[in-house]
Amino acid sequence: MIRLLHADDKEKIVNILISTKFFTDEEVEIAKEILDIFIDEPNQKDYLIYVSEENNIVEGYVNIGKTPGTFGTFDLYWIAVDPEIQGKGVGTKLLDFAKNEIKNQNGTLIISETSSTEKYFPTQKFYEAKGFIQLAKIKNYYKQNDDLIIYGHYLQGEN
To answer: Number of structural domains, the chain?
Structure first.
């Protein structure tokens, strides 16, 4: 089941982020700030956060939001799945759900950013397998030899 994030999901999501070993301490802190905004400010319009839950266990989450100043462009801010169940379709399920939510809000383009380092090759392959294309690459963005890769997924023509 996929549903909106509840306040008591925060610790579970943070544990997933840490256990993936993909995110730095700073990135986890940023994710926590966004979770707090979503939980504490119900009228905010910047973030939508959904969790995948099976048998009352949170398996992963996705965080999307309309890109300010655009018409139809959304950011895929975070997507993370418990490492113990990665590869079992939870990430695909979350991404498909997010795509449908974005379409329901007249979204036409999803932007996602990732690192160029070897550690993120599985992330890059995931996006590419799901129809994302590389739109840009900014050299040494995160740090020396760690480029920013910007992926985009156009939703026109999808059912």
So the answer is: 1
Tell me how far apart the alpha carbons of residues 52 and 68 are, in angstroms, rounded to a whole number: 26
Interatomic CA distance for residues 61 and 123, integer angstroms: 15
CB atoms within 10 A of CB 159: 4
Question: Do the beta carbons of residue 133 and residue 153 sit within 8 Å?
Answer: yes
Residue 107 in any domain: the answer is yes
pTM attached to this predicted model: 0.93
What H or E segment, with its residue span, contains residue 99?
A: helix 90-104
**Residue 45 resides in a domain:** yes
Specify if 159 maps to a domain.
Answer: no
DSSP string of 122-144, one letter each residue: HHHHHHHHTT-EEEEEEEEEEET
CB atoms within 10 A of CB 33: 10
Range of the domain at 98: 2-154
Residue 35 · residue 13 · CB < 8 Å = yes
Give the tens place of pLDDT for each residue, 1-55.
999 999 999 999 999 999 999 899 999 999 999 999 999 999 999 999 999 999 9
Report pLDDT digits (tens) over 79-96: 999 999 998 999 999 999
How far is it, in rounded angstroms, from Cα 111 to Cα 109? 7
Evaluate if residue 157 carries a pLDDT over 80.
no
